[in-house]
Amino acid sequence: MKVSIFDVAKKSGLSVVTVSRVLNGAGTVREKNRQRVLDAMKELDYRPSAAARSLARGKTGIIGLMLATLQDSFYDRIVSEINEILEEHGYYLAVSVTKFPPGETSHYLIQEDRVDGLILLSPTEEDHYIEELKRRNIPYVLIDNQHEANDDYSVTVNNFKGGYMAGQLLTELGCRSIAHLSGDEIYRSTKERRAGFVKALDDAGLEPFELIRGKYETEFGYHTVKRWIAAGQLPDAVFAGDDYIAAGLINAFKESGIRVPEDVSVVGYDDQDIASMLRPFVTTVRQPANLIAEAAADLLLRQVGESQSGDEDEGKDEAARLIGQRVDPELIVRQSTRSIGTTTKE
């Protein structure tokens, strides 16, 4: 039969509360009582389970993470990195896929004693969740949040800079007729990438060939190319709002006999796995998943530590110093872009 904390209490002649305090390393236990508990544990060969340790610490040992989809290699890298970091700190990661519907905050993870903290990855209607998390006193961190007012507890990417880098690359390569296909307007990153791109073209004295709003889907890129071909007008370069849109563009160009990059250069965004699987390999703006994960885990772990510190004033003082982080993207130049007037080596 498996030995329990109750067996240790009975063997030591002390209460379960005292045994729990010893397991938790509390300094309020008398030395002779602590030794009696340790002796009983040794004699019974008692090894506290993760659940027992969590109860002793007043924690669940679980961090929750909510995101809208698992069909995204960028999200997958973030989740994997966060999982590894939390594991090193003795936490388990509970992942939930949710569509973040407006006003629906009764998610099972957002309940007392379910998790020690929560990470929301690319949430929409985030204010509804934040209000509920604060009410329940659950530490939280946002990744790719939509409202600047919530940036103190968030990790974001400088998407304006990413859009600017994409536009700047294409103008410096000699492209003069450049289009941009942006994704869902509900995302702040969509607007920032477009604004950065427009600024880069403005600095180069250029107007966009076309600014088109759509979805982060391959079909959006594909059908846009077909429309351009039907109209008999093509740009000499396209900045796609993400790599899936870029994939749709490239497929449609190749299907129509238009060469990438010889005839049209293409830049994507995110550095999804698909960017290095397509031929040609896609030039893209990489979001640093490892840095995002590290920053998010650090921000949340500091909050979780404060909520369990037992010193309310100290926790509040430290919480006031917690400020979200903004990380820079990286331009990854591959085969889908080239200078105007040059030829591509086989």
UniProtKB/TrEMBL annotation:
Domain HTH lacI-type: 3-57
Domain of life the protein comes from: Bacteria
Pfam families hit by this protein: LacI (PF00356), Peripla_BP_3 (PF13377)
Key words of the record: DNA-binding, Transcription, Transcription regulation
Record GO terms (molecular function): DNA-binding transcription factor activity; transcription cis-regulatory region binding
UniProt-listed InterPro entries: HTH_LacI (IPR000843), LacI/GalR-like_sensor (IPR046335), Lambda_DNA-bd_dom_sf (IPR010982), Peripla_BP_I (IPR028082)
Residues spanning the signal sequence: none
Gene3D superfamilies: 3.40.50.2300, lambda repressor-like DNA-binding domains (1.10.260.40)
Annotated protein name in UniProt: LacI family transcriptional regulator
Organism: Paenibacillus taihuensis
